[in-house]
Automatic annotation (TrEMBL):
Active site: 114
Entry binding sites for Ca(2+) 1: 53, 116, 167-168, 223, 268-269
Organism: Cavia porcellus (Guinea pig)
Record protein name field: Paraoxonase
Protein modification: Glycosylated.
Length: 354
């Protein structure tokens, strides 16, 4: 009887793990192949060969791009290089990328930029907030943009116990921002277990100099975050659950969930078109390929446009999709005056005229 019970328990455990593995593969879209959707008048941006994980475009058409992300489980084509912030002027007929110099005593040797967000002060000063992972920790760095010199001046580093494993931020006021935590555990093996057992322990934090608090929780992998043009709603991407959450922002900075948009692809960063309010999402059609990188069968790229997200039935359209032959691991897409920039976690950046 003891042996029989042991075999029953073993069989039950193996069946449980087998089902979890099937579910894990389904969540990662492991069997999905990309149906191409191409854009015309496209070219890859020179100097951006080591990722373009996040993008933020100013009203003037100047675009900031974070590059060189070193992150557990993500391919790294330039292990000896530090991260950088690049600038592109989308008003140029052939936009070129320029690495921004940083002054003010910032330790560039440990610069590992992830999500970014800009804030324009009442006097017109532009501030760039950057999620940084020095030695794989999480900080938020604040820089002032010196437009004439095409450089950044380091101002401040923000650290807090609720700002761990930070992925992305959206700035909503002077030194006020929302930030996403994309994993509960720091080490990659434990992250895999977190994903395998489908734990929902990640969250959104609100930060200000006077108050730091958790404002939304229960996400599988809270990832990209942005704000509506009228500042009333916060949009949060849950990459593992293939969802975009629409959250109402209150005067005390708390968030209340209004609706959830279920998608068929794994959503990374979100960018809102300030003119139309449309959400542009950089997505991973097959995250399994990204996590198990094979240059012979690379991860593809996908860009979605979500119109009328507050409506009962928002319009979701695929603007771009590629099997990895041109662009691998798309993470963000941003538009300006009929042009689009598509960034990636570790690969290149694509510029197209819509």
């Amino acid at each position: 009887m003891a042996k029989l019970a042991t075999w029953i328990l073993l069989g039950t455990g193996l069946a449980f793990l087998g089902q979890k593995f099937v579910t894990f593969r389904e969540k990662m879209n492991a069997s999905r192949e990309v149906v191409p959707v191409e854009l015309q008048n496209c070219h890859l941006i020179e100097k951006l060969e080591n990722g373009s994980e996040d993008i933020d475009i100013l009203p003037s058409g100047l675009a900031f791009i974070s590059t060189g992300l070193k992150y557990p489980g993500v391919p790294d084509f330039a292990p000896g290089e530090t991260g950088k912030i690049f600038l592109i002027d989308l008003n140029e007929q052939v936009p070129r990328a320029q690495a921004l110099k940083i002054s003010g005593g910032f330790e560039e040797a440990l610069f590992n930029p992830h999500g970014i967000s800009t804030f324009i002060g009442k006097d017109g000063t532009v501030y760039l907030y950057v999620v940084n992972h020095p030695l794989l920790e999480s900080t938020v760095e604040i820089f002032k943009f010196e437009e004439q010199q095409r450089s950044l001046t380091y101002l401040k580093t923000i650290k807090h116990e609720l700002l761990k494993c930070v992925n992305d931020i959206v700035v909503v006021g002077p030194e006020q921002f929302y930030a996403t935590r994309d994993r509960y555990f720091a080490s990659f093996p434990l992250v895999l277990l977190e994903m395998f057992f489908d734990l929902h322990w990640t969250y959104v934090t609100f930060y200000s100099p006077s108050e730091v608090k958790l404002v939304a929780k229960g996400f599988g992998t809270a990832n990209g975050i942005t704000v509506s043009p009228d500042q009333r709603y916060i949009y949060v991407a849950d990459i593992r659950d293939k969802k975009i959450y629409v959250m109402e922002k209150h005067e005390n900075w708390d968030l209340t969930q209004l609706k959830v948009l279920q998608l068929e692809t794994l959503v990374d960063n979100l960018i809102v078109d300030p003119t139309t309010g449309d959400i542009w999402a950089g997505c991973h059609p097959n995250l399994f390929k990204l996590m198990h990188y094979n240059p012979e069968d690379p991860p593809g790229s996908e860009v979605l446009r979500i119109q009328n997200v507050l409506a009962d039935k928002p319009t979701v359209s695929t603007v771009y999709a590629n099997n990895g032959s041109v662009l691998q691991g798309s993470s963000v897409a941003a538009v300006y005056n009929g042009k689009i920039l598509i960034g990636t976690v570790f690969h290149r950046a694509l510029y197209c005229v819509l």
